[in-house]
Write a structure and sequence with these properties.
It is a single chain. The chain is an alpha/beta fold and 467 residues long. The protein contains eleven helices and 23 strands. The strands form five sheets. A nine-stranded mixed beta sheet has the order 1-2-3-14-4-15-21-17-19, sandwiched between helices. Strands 8-7-11-5-6-10-9 form a seven-stranded antiparallel beta sheet. A three-stranded antiparallel beta sheet has the order 12-13-23. Helix 3 crosses helix 11, helix 6 crosses helix 11 and helix 9 crosses helix 11. The longest helix has 19 residues. The protein starts with 8 loop residues before the first helix and ends with a helix. The relative contact order is 0.17. It binds manganese (II) ion (MN) (2 copies). The site of one manganese (II) ion has 3 residues, from loops.
């Protein structure tokens, strides 16, 4: 048979009618280096801002540096003006005013900056058999066994009786000590091995070792605890009673690191959801003259249901939007009716080592771009907001026009589990919304991994959305 370069009718049809999301490194190899460069400051952000408070502090500094001013509801703003609102140091909203009036619509991008972690209990400090510990209460959905036998750092704030705030950040600098949760040795873990994995380490076993030296004086009650307190008092000027005025969080210690011989991936805690929050913030900062006014929301408390007055289901977002409308003399409802929002949150990257929980045809993959998720939720879409075909069409058109590499994905198999995002609360404001984010492997682990290519495409998508 003769060889020919001409395609058969079937091959042509296959090209025209079928669709598969490409691997970016093959379709656009030049993006590998662009993604590497984009992710250097992302890694620095991850390493510097490990809690929601630290993220807000860092974001506010970046916004101020770029000329953003505190939003003044009584001031008239012009296209290109840049403002922000800091909500209690734990969530932050930033806007760049667009060239079109607000009643023609606004563009919102909501990502969260809280992440699963171990919070200290209100009465955290105790001594047991000559070791001093902090008692913890985990925050968000964690697999508890993953948090033992790794270096931990402590972050947060303590208020003294006189009102002075003491900022705590210890365990990140290579010269700092770290903290540690013990687990059994294999020689003695026969009975523990019979537990289910969910109970491998139980909540009340997540006790952080913080010291082992006794205060050098005879006949004292709990001398190791006293020794720790004397060190804390010397370093921070605090006493045990000050823990009731504190918020302290333990997270995996150390900086974000490249993964793989090709350095294509990044391991870090809290990619969920800094991997969306950071590119969202960068897109906000890089929007000079957007058509529609931008509203970039970095919110708190997503991991426990968007509750509290720093979570997205609080009126803080609504009040900001109302001020924005009033301030420009535009009816709030009219502005909202034309708004569109990206709920920027992560999805579960297909994991070839554990393929059983994923449906391969509807999963997202590392290195294929940002992931558009029509709906989240669990079982029969419980807890989903389920974006309309119209909203999907709008967002896909924005990405395709800008040449963004994106993929579609669901979290996992239908009956396997599930999860929600802030989308349902944005939808509750009567705003069109869809989830767009980045695939994450080992989500909610102390160290998660993502592909640099996917972060870069999320940034490209957010930038195009704000054009
Ligand atoms: Mn998330
Ligand atoms: Mn999460």
């Amino acid at each position: 048979m003769e060889t020919t370069n001409e395609k058969t009718k079937g091959q042509l049809l296959q090209e025209q009618l079928t669709w598969e999301f490409p691997s970016i490194a093959q379709a656009a190899p030049e993006r590998v280096e662009a993604a590497q460069s984009f992710c250097e400051p992302y890694k620095a952000f991850l390493s510097e801002a490990k809690t929601e408070r630290e993220c807000v502090t860092k974001a506010e500094a970046m916004l101020k540096e770029a000329g953003y001013t505190v939003f003044d509801p009584s001031k008239a703003y012009a296209p290109g003006d840049k403002v922000y609102l800091n909500n209690r140091g734990k969530s932050i909203i930033a806007s760049t005013f667009g060239t079109r009036p607000l009643n023609e619509g606004i563009r919102l991008n909501a990502a969260h900056i809280d992440a699963p972690r171990l919070d200290l209990k209100p009465t955290p400090l105790y001594e047991q058999n000559d070791i001093a510990y902090f008692k913890t209460h985990y925050y968000g959905g964690i697999r508890k066994y993953q948090w033992a036998t790794i270096p931990l750092s402590l972050h947060g704030v303590i208020y003294k009786k006189n009102g002075e705030a003491v900022t705590i950040n210890i365990g990140e600098d290579p010269s700092d000590p770290v903290f540690y949760i013990s687990d059994l040795l294999p020689h003695l873990s026969g009975r523990q091995n019979q537990r289910t994995l969910a109970e491998g380490i139980k909540g009340e076993e997540l006790n952080i070792i913080i010291g082992s030296l006794p205060y050098p004086e005879k006949d004292l009650k709990n001398p190791v605890k006293l020794m720790v307190l004397s060190i804390l008092n010397e370093k921070y000027g605090i006493t045990e009673a000050d823990f009731y005025r504190a918020e302290l969080e333990a997270v995996a210690a150390g900086p974000a690191r490249d993964v793989g011989f090709d350095r294509s991936l990044i391991a870090s805690g809290a990619h969920d959801d800094r991997v969306c929050a950071y590119p969202a913030l960068r897109a906000e900062l890089d929007s000079v003259s957007p058509t529609y006014t931008t509203v970039t929301i970095l919110t708190d408390k997503e991991e426990i249901g968007s509750v509290g007055n720093t979570g997205l289901n609080s009126d803080y977002v609504r009040h900001y939007l109302e001020y924005l409308a009033e301030n420009s003399g535009v009816p709030y409802k009219e502005m909202i009716a034309h708004a569109i929002c990206l709920s920027s949150d992560v999805s579960a990257a297909f994991d070839p080592t554990f393929p059983d929980v994923y449906e391969a045809g509807n999963s997202c993959y590392l290195g294929k771009g940002c992931v558009l998720t029509k709906y989240t939720g669990s079982r029969g879409k419980g807890g989903a907001s389920d974006a309309s075909a119209e909203t999907m069409a709008k967002v896909i058109a924005i990405m395709e026009d800008a040449g963004v590499y994106w993929q579609a994905g669901e979290l996992g198999k239908v009956d396997e589990g599930g999860g929600g995002t802030v989308a349902q609360y944005v939808a509750g404001l009567n705003i069109d919304v869809v989830d767009l984010g980045v695939p994450v492997m080992s989500m909610h682990a102390p160290m998660e991994i993502i592909s640099k290519l996917d972060v870069y495409e999320a940034y490209q998508a957010f930038l195009a959305f704000y054009k």
